[in-house]
Design a protein that fits this description.
about 475 residues; Amidase signature (AS) enzymes; 16 helices
């Protein structure tokens, strides 16, 4: 879709301003029901679009993404634009700088329509934890859009943006992509700079694209990937055009499957994944059964490491430096253990009223696991298991090029279905979190739909590749896509 619009811009069939206005018209028409966006940046978008049109009028060459309207998850900073991470504690926060991915998109002339909704601080699998409201699935308004990048996925599925950025800490790009029937790509940890992403779990977070097609995901990745001096975990990987690897050929590629991942599915979902496997066989890929013996501990490992990092990262929201400040006028200022009561109450009140229920739950879990006497039993042990899971993947990738698995256990569930049972909600991440634990790239692609309550719903499968082998992963994902 991006390439098609790019060609229309060059030929003069459309202008970037006209295209941008069309997308704002769609947002105005549809978003009152879906609620994909938290903030619209119409003035900025039209200013960006006008610059591109002027460039085309001068006969200058434009980049593939130049003048193409997209959406940005609201935990990524855009200078001068409100950035809330869907939390009341950042309700009045205006970002003073651009995230590195935003700088790179600005450099190629991309157009920003606005900031999309998410689970608060990206903690959730349904975008029901946003402080501002639930994002509904455009394909069935009674169902969730997935999380935590639900706003970005819904915007793409509803035609409210051409491309979008999300973040993925345990499946937060891939799961909503699966639920909304679109493509979601989590790059290798370090492939894309995290500078300017509001940190949730720093060893797990990664920024990536959500798009209508694999080619569009490759185009966006080509722009945002690369080393950044402001992110010490980023790797040398800029200047690569990932679209060049979309050959449509998978002949000879070895695709690994884990029997337990598939056998544990309900019959309809199992049938969908088996159809995907058959398609790859027909395309010439070799299907190899592999074993990931420690992956059964992934969920437990993730839900120790992630809350521990949450507890550390969210300690900065104290009601003093930025964000919400709840000032209790009744405080006396009497010192308690070296700290004024007024200061302590400011911390406590600001965090009490600023954070939502799920955020508080994870802060408490993480603080407990890191506390004296429990650190070795929980956090240290989880990190050791993480190493074992990573070794499983290293051994598996000696035999195969890619690993194929479901993205999520089910299609999109109904709004409110899992909100009262956090454990049920956490189980929705069971297939997606391993890629974050070990840092490999993963992409969710729409597979055969699954019938639920008499209605066909999207059901995605994911491909995981070796570290920094997005090329083969995109090639295989694209080959499946064009075979349908």
């Amino acid at each position: 879709m991006i390439r098609e619009l790019h060609n229309k811009l060059i030929s003069g069939e459309i202008t970037s301003v006209k295209l941008t206005e069309e997308y704002f018209a769609r947002i105005e028409e549809k978003d009152k029901d879906i609620f994909a966006y938290l903030t619209l940046t119409k003035d900025l978008a039209l200013e960006q679009a006008r610059k591109v049109d002027a460039k085309i009028a001068r006969g200058e060459k434009i980049e593939l993404l130049e003048g193409i309207p997209g959406a940005i998850k609201d935990n990524l900073c855009i200078s001068g634009v409100r950035t809330t991470a869907a939390s009341k504690i950042l309700d009045n926060y205006i970002a003073p700088y651009d995230a590195t991915v935003i700088e790179r998109l600005k450099e190629v002339g991309a157009v920003f329509l606005g900031k999309t909704n998410l689970d608060e601080f990206a903690m959730g699998s349904s975008t029901e934890n946003s402080a501002y409201g639930v994002t509904k699935n455009p394909l069935d308004l009674t169902r969730v859009s997935g999380g935590s990048s639900g706003g970005s996925a819904a915007a793409i599925a509803a035609g409210e943006a051409v491309w979008a950025l999300g973040t993925d800490t345990g499946g937060s790009i891939r799961e909503p992509a699966s639920f909304c029937g679109v493509v979601g790509l989590k790059p290798t940890y370090g492939r894309v700079s995290r500078h300017g992403a509001i940190a949730m779990a720093s060893s797990l977070d990664q920024i990536g694209p959500i798009t209508k097609s694999v080619e569009d995901a490759a185009i966006v990745l080509s722009v945002i990937a690369g080393q950044d001096k402001l992110d010490a975990t980023s790797a040398h990987s800029s200047g690569k055009d990932y679209t060049k690897y979309l050959t449509g050929e998978v002949q000879g590629l070895r695709v690994g499957i884990v029997a337990e991942y598939i056998d544990g599915l309900d019959e309809k979902e199992k049938k969908s994944i088996l159809e995907v496997i058959e398609t790859y066989k027909k395309l010439g890929a070799e299907i190899v059964e592999i074993d990931l013996p420690h992956s059964k501990y992934s969920l437990a490992t993730y839900y120790i490491i992630q809350p521990c990092e949450v507890s550390s990262n969210l300690a900065r929201y104290d009601g003093i430096r930025y964000g919400l400040n709840v000032d209790d006028k009744k405080n006396s200022g009497v010192k308690e253990d070296g700290m004024s009561k007024k200061l302590l109450e400011t911390y406590l009140d600001s965090r009490q009223y600023g954070f939502g229920k799920e955020v508080k739950r994870r802060i408490m879990l993480g603080t407990y696991a890191l506390s004296s006497g429990y650190y070795d039993a929980y956090y240290l042990k989880a990190q050791k298991v993480r190493t074992l899971i990573k070794r499983d993947f290293e051994k598996a990738f000696e035999k195969v090029d890619l690993i194929l698995a479901p993205t999520a256990p089910t299609p999109a569930f109904r709004i409110g279905e899992k909100t009262e049972d956090p454990l049920k909600m956490y189980l929705a991440d069971m297939f997606s979190i391993t890629a974050n634990i070990v840092g490999v790239p993963a992409i969710s692609v729409p597979g055969p739909e699954v019938e639920v309550d008499g209605k066909k719903l999207p059901f995605g499968f994911q491909l995981m590749a070796k570290w920094f082998d997005e090329e083969n992963m995109l090639r295989a994902a694209h080959a499946y896509e064009i075979s349908k």
